[in-house]
Write a structure and sequence with these properties.
The protein is an alpha/beta fold. 27% of the residues lie in helices and 25% in strands. The chain contains 6 helices and 7 strands, in the order αβαβαβαββαβαβ. The strands form 3 sheets. A 3-stranded parallel β-sheet has the order 3-4-5, with no helix packed on it. Strands 1-2 form a two-stranded parallel ribbon. Strand 6, helix 6 and strand 7 form a beta-alpha-beta unit. The longest helix is centred in the C-terminal third of the chain and has 12 residues.
Amino acid sequence: MQLAESAGAYVIATASPRSSSRATAAGADEIIDHTAADVIVAVKRPVDVALNLAPVDPAQLAALLGLIRPGGVLVHTTVWMAAPADEDRGVRGINLFVHSDAEQLSHMVALIDRGELRVEVARRVPLAELPALHAAAAGALPNGKAVVVPRT
C-alpha cells in the first residue's frame, strides 16, 4: 500500500477491524471490512489493478475480474492456482512470485532508511525457533513481520 500510495494510486484495501488502522496508516484511501462485506459488492467503481495476496476460492478470484476496467490487470500471489484473465476485455491475469533482485532490494532498503517506507516488525525470533514460527503460521500470528535473527 505504501508503494502504491507513493506512486499516486488511489488504494482500496480490505482489512478486518483489527487491522484497518494499520491499512490506513500504510496509505489506504478506502477500507473494506472483508469480515462484514462482500468485496465484489463493496467496490463501487472499476479499478485498474486488483492485487490478491491471500488464498481464496477460485470463484472469488474470478469474480475480481468484474471489478477491473478493460485493459487492467489482476495480480495474484498465491501459487496453488493461476490468475484468471478476461481476454475479451483485455484484462490480464498475472501470477506474481518472489524474485530476489539485488538492485530492487537495495532500493527498498534505501526507502526504509530514508523513512519513506515503513516495515512493522512484530517480533524478532532466534533462528533456533524458526520451526515454531512456521508451525504458528497456521494460526494467528501477530500483525507485522517476523525477523529471524541468527545466533551471534
